[in-house]
Amino acid sequence: MKIRQYLNVAVLLVLTVFTVFSIYGAFLGAEQAKVFFNSRSMIVFWCFLLLLFGVGFFVYASLRKRFSLLMIHAGCVLVLTGGMIGSQRGHALLDRLLQKDSFVKGTMLLHQGQSSNQAALDTDTGIGELPFTIGLKEAFIEYYDKPAIRFYFSDATDSGFTIPAEVGKEIELPDDRGTLQVTGAYQNFKMRRVNGRMMPYEAVESGFNPAYELVLVLAGKPPETFFVFERFGMHAMPGRSYRADYAAPRMVKDYKSTLQVIDKEQVVKESTIEVNKPLYYGGYHFYQSTFAYDTSGPVSGISVSSSRGVWAVFVGYGIIFIGLVLQFWPTLLKGGTQ
Amino acid sequence: MTIKPDIQGLLIYLTMAGYLLVFLTAVKFPKLAKAFFAGSFVLSLAGLIYRWTVVGHLPMQNMFEVFLFLGFCIWPIHILSRKILNRNDSVLMAVDAALGLIVLFPAGFVFNHHPQFLPPALQFWLFGPHVAAYMLAYIFLVKAAVFAAGGLILPSRGEQLAKTTADSGYRLVAAGFPLLTLGLFLGSVWGKYAWGDWWGWDPKELWSLVCWLVYAIYLHAHYAWPKRYSLQHVLNVIGLFCIIITLLWVNLSKIFSGLHNYA
Ligand code: HEM
Hints:
The complex is a heterodimer.
Chain A (H helix, E strand, L loop, with lengths): L1 H27 L1 H8 L2 H20 L1 H5 L1 H20 L1 H11 L6 E7 L3 E7 L5 E18 L3 E6 L7 E4 L5 E4 L4 E9 L2 E6 L2 E6 L8 E8 L5 E6 L12 E6 L3 E13 L2 E8 L5 E3 L2 E11 L2 E10 L3 H23 L6
Antiparallel strand pairs in A: 1-2, 1-17, 2-3, 3-13, 4-5, 4-12, 6-7, 7-10, 8-9, 10-11, 13-14, 15-16, 16-17
Helix pairs in contact in A: 1-2, 1-3, 3-5, 5-6, 5-7
Chain B lengths: L6 H19 L4 H26 L7 H23 L4 H21 L16 H27 L5 H37 L7 H22 L4 H24 L11
Bound molecules: protoporphyrin IX containing FE (HEM).
């Protein structure tokens, strides 16, 4: 009985200390906070926290016997463990135990047609080696070389269409949806009332408000006119099923790399990566990060990050969430005390 | 402070007027107030749908849209709280309506509502659910703090008031805490895909962790000392304080620099 009371206090104290550390970390900023939470003295804290959970399972029967409480606290242990395994020191320790050679984060610079299994480490000047090879089949960067207008249908999930911002340019929309044409350009766009209707005009008074007039003709519908402004980003078009934006010259439109995974002399996987679309293979995620050109062509910077421990973390979070729902929500719906 | 002289603004201001009417009539004419509340909900729904058609994606991408969404959640959560708290009184209605006014104020008068293109990292389907889970959690937790503050501030009517407010506070935290956890979870999955890390030690992340820990502390304190109501109330109010810091301070002040600055 006594030990439980002490343990209750200990849990509250440790969680409070954790809170204080987190606030301190928030003031440090991301980079230094990362160093702080991975420091040697913090390892003591993390291990102590894990130990506390262990003691908790031992001392409190309810943590073992009530399924929801078991899920909540076991989930916390999984997240903590996953985080520790995935850290720099966690990798080093596990590598020594399993006689493996892995790394947490690194960058590969690949020329088109080149392949490699080496990544420059983010943490020091060392080189990390992958147990397989990554080849860059193709790399492409898309710029806006001229002013352009980007046009999107609201229901579309793709990256939309681009039309040069020049009067007279016209594009066909796919699937015979219709056409889009640039019909006018203004240096100093203003509106005024003519016969009760608001009409655009080129203002002669001082001011600078470049704008383009576009006409969208959708199959079976009357043409619709709208305007895109250089200086005001996207223009709201209430009630319309599309949107458009001005893209300045030399703005990056997109960059992508088609990667091949070569394992034991064979291409086992091929996929095109871009921002938000990594490739996963053999415990590592590959992300598009930088892009450059040198004398021999495009060079794609690919950041490689180990996914060790990530699954434990995600499963842990999931278990905590489900455990919490089971622990709390059914009783809530039964109604409270007045 | 800006006024939005368009349909979007009109819908927001009408919803706010509705909440104000609920607040004013709740105690004297509760039946009328109920009707006003449902009407305000319809208006807030219209505002949300209108925004959706204008921007063409789930409107949960910037501060304006987030507060618009919060204003829309007020009535459904009010109905749910009546069930959870087993009370159906005018005070609850007035408090919830006031909350509606508070959360819509930034949408109506502070944040800019020009549609923007999303930065690539935000163009991921998990982003909406991640924000939504947090927002719903925040509403429950703010209400929990209102009860806690009531328990602390109201001239004491003895044990009974302390007990009732503590119980209501606990029930609302019990409703919100799982959602807070879900927000953290979805955020980490999203982070892994967008940046390659499920956790980045960035100030906004750390503050959200602080919130989560404060409520974990609250729940354990509630378990360890079920009768120490003032302690529970104080922890609950600290939780609200941390939520406010997480939600606003990191964004509005430019003190910290980090990944989440555009959110
Ligand atoms: C971040 C860490 C933790 C979280 C998020 C967490 C979460 C929770 C939650 C949500 C409850 C349910 C409370 C309720 O029903 O009102 C709970 C209860 C409990 N937790 Fe934790 N907990 C954590 C750490 C710990 C640790 C380290 C221990 C023990 C060493 C512990 C021991 C307990 C006990 C004994 C209960 C009460 C069980 C009962 O109702 O019989 N918790 N915890």
